[in-house]
Amino acid sequence: MTITTLIADAVGLRKYRRPVALENANSFPDVSAAPLDSRRLIRDRRYCCVLSGQDDLPFDEVSLGCAWKALEHEMALVPGGTVFLHSDTAVATPYGLELVPNELQPVGVESLYIDRHCVTNADYARFVEAGGYSNPMHWPVEVLPNVLQFTDRSGHPGPAGWLNGKPATDRLNHPVVGISWYEANAYANWVGKRLPRSEEWQRAGTWPKGQAANGAEVRYPWGNAFDPGKANIWTSNRGGTVAVDQFSSGATPNGVRQLVGNVWEWVDAQYALHADEGIEVQLDGTIAETRGGAFDSYFHSQATCQFRTGQPMLFRGANVGFRCCISACELPQADDQANPNERVSEL
Prior knowledge:
By secondary structure, the chain is α+β, with helices and mostly antiparallel strands.
């Protein structure tokens, strides 16, 4: 399959848009031409609310154009395709129970846009300042009593490691951590996005590099060999999170950064452990899946595009963050028609 066929199959009848120049990735685009109300939404990273017509409110063409510009700066297109999800099976051995990895059935993935980097402390602070913790629209009814316990070190609503409702000023561009699966979902809902499903997250890391020589998906966004210079895990000797724009050499070719390393990422999937017949697995409550490994992951075999593990949905660890996505079919058709050949050549 050629890259041209791949892109055409993935995007289908959608019109092509000119990709964002990655060298300008650190500066948010100028959206000052948009009216004040939509400009505020876009600068708060809620541009998907504008594009998808939040609350059926009509937005003018200038606002839509600025929202597209912001989306293309902040998110990357992941073409649809197929991934092979892996799982662990508990088996009995003479030495006790062991987990044996196995490959499950192929799963189809529709085209989507995914955040180029994890949600940062600065991003999440906008949600907190907007009263996200006190708005019941962002929380499932059954978890509302727990929302009162989602506080920082000073008792203010916010991530576990913050103080007085604010992040440390020297960590504004680090991924937000200390948030439960529910808090990640609440933020995603506020910005008009959602958490990626397990297969979508895996597709984002594996599609640009295709398959290895043996036909298997590549293990890392850059290939099959681990490189501590491309991902922040234990062997990288950082000892904590780093800014979301570091380890740029480990990004996918279309500019999705730190899918592997720095922080585990919540995804929209319940973690399930399979077991051989006769073995009963009892998990401690409902476990949500996490992906990608973190700064404290000792084994690089756990920081791959395929490895799956999980944490209780109320877990608020210092090594778990998240990124958001939106299905391509939820967005309106693009207005401009960049040359498809130009788009493919730039990819």
